[in-house]
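To: structure subgroup
Subject: Chain for Friday's discussion

All,

I'm putting the inputs and outputs inline so they're searchable in the archive.
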Amino acid sequence: MKKKNVLKIIFLAVLVVGTVLIIMQQRNTPYQHDTGFVFGTEYHITYQSSDDLQPEIDKALAQVDTALSPFNKQSVITQVNNNRPVKLSEMFTEVFSKAESISRETDGAFDITVAPLVNAWGFGFKSGVHPSRHIVDSLRQFVGYKKVALVDGRIVKKDPRLMLDCSGIAKGYGVDVVAKLLRDKGVENFMVEIGGEIVTSGISEKRLPWKIGVTKPTDDATQTNQELQTVLNVTDKAMATSGNYRNFYYKGGKKYAHTIDPKTGYPVQHNILSSTVLASDCATADAYATAFMVTGLKGAQAILRKHPELMVYFIYDDGKGHNQVWYSPSMKKAIAE
């Protein structure tokens, strides 16, 4: 009996010492801070590791670029848009399938075929002029997620002029790719941010949960105003924000937002100014944040009733010139006091 007790004491002592050593090692392991440029924007990645993983991070992001960047002449999506035979990569297929699913769930509010309309309104690849109704109606003939499908490993279009643009999901997917790389390397504490889309895990360098600010909407095309509306505790979650208040142009005294409604072909005139979504992965958060800018508040609330797993924080115009806030009940616990 005494021998058993001695063994138990030894086991507990080893366990305690081992735990202390692990904690000490974790505390002594430095946080790396990597920055770079991808998808036309900056990335900032903070992670706790003794190793510099930036070369591998850049390699992974280059693979995403090769799959999804319409600005890369050799990318898979460019070949698809140019109707050239191409072997679809696993990344391209994964993003296309997710985009197709979210398009169905949002009744087409999220649509990766909207690029021609975006371009016609002067955003994206080239600067344009206010398109006529005839031009908009003409372009709508080859816009619509139901007009393209993935069949037996290839993209099938109902109209060869149809173009794919994954800008509403690619950044989020890139964040997911880097987060997976870090997890595969055994990194437990990190924050990955690409152009405002974020995934966090564990704790920050301050030994605290990750806190992410939501910027207050202002008509600030220079993006110099960084006043915060609120701060969210984002731990082991993905977060994406979409907003029209910084991406617009004026013509004829009217403001045109960068978000185009795929159904009407015109910039949205809904009341949501800023759409923040928390989800299990960043590609999903990114796509839904974009979709909610199209649906408006009531439309978003209807979708959320079918998807309670999504946490949202909306800033919207009440129609009287005042900004109001609406967030899902599940988001309340994430709002920092």
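Points worth raising on Friday:
The first strand starts at residue 31 and ends at 38.
Residues 18-25 have pLDDT under 50 and may be disordered.

D.
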